[in-house]
Amino acid sequence: MKLIGSYTSPFVRKISVMLLEKGIIFEFVNESPWLEESEVPRYNPLGKVPALVDDNGQCWFDSAIIADYLELQHTPPAFSPADPLKALQVRQLAKLADGITDAAVLIVREQQRPGNQQSEALLIRCRGHILRGLDRLEQEARDGQWLHGDTLNLADIATGCMLGYLNFRRIVPDWCVERPALVKLAEDLFQRASFARTVPAA
Ligand SMILES: N[C@@H](CCC(=O)N[C@@H](CS)C(=O)NCC(=O)O)C(=O)O
């Protein structure tokens, strides 16, 4: 299996963490999607990472689809409940974490533009998405160790990668203030070997 991605992408990190947790051996192909000569569009017409090439040579893209694909391989541990409604609930929470990540990535891109070309309205809107999303995840994290059920799941992994990205890019750096359940979740996740091995490189 080949994972096409960059070391700083939180979406790529999510897939790396899943592969490491499941003990699936994979080759990491480091490709920046932002370079003119990027090979990423060969794997994903949308030009985004991650993409995954499976052992049959089929290429999968979008981290949510790749996560579904990996779950379909039934390599333990499962990160999605067997019950379809519970599985949908977990995917919705993972989608929420991914949506926060999308907003954070947008802020990073916007802030890379010259100051006088940045849209203050866009930055405020993205910040709103992030804060409301974090508040919802905080509520969900209050019961039990994990966001859903009593085992590590896809929503936890997506949330850990999102919080790691907020820390890495210093977006909403005070996210941890008054969100103790998310802080605890992050502490638990960041201690795992899969997270320690995928800390974003500056
Ligand atoms: N929904 C996509 C988002 C992936 C994404 O936004 N990746 C960023 C890197 S963090 C990217 O490749 N951006 C390149 C671009 O937008 O052209 C997923 O979950 O895989």
Characterize the structure shown.
With about 200 residues, the protein is α+β, with helices and mostly antiparallel strands. The chain has two domains: about 70 residues, Glutaredoxin; about 110 residues, Glutathione S-transferase Yfyf (Class Pi), Chain A, domain 2 (Up-down Bundle). It is built from eight helices and four strands. A four-stranded mixed beta sheet has the order 2-1-3-4, covered by helices on one side. Helix 6 crosses helix 7. The longest helix is centred in the middle third of the chain and has 28 residues. It is globular and about 50 Å long. The two termini are about 25 Å apart. The model has no long low-confidence stretch (mean pLDDT about 95). It holds the Pfam family GST_N_2. InterPro entries: Glutathione-S-Trfase_C-like, Glutathione-S-Trfase_C_sf, Glutathione_S-Trfase, Glutathione_S-Trfase_N, Thioredoxin-like_sf. This is Glutathione S-transferase.
Short structural summary:
With about 200 residues, the chain is of the alpha+beta class.
Which keywords apply here?
202 residues; Glutaredoxin; 2 domains; globular; 53% helix; alpha+beta; four-stranded mixed beta sheet; Glutathione S-transferase Yfyf (Class Pi), Chain A, domain 2; binds glutathione
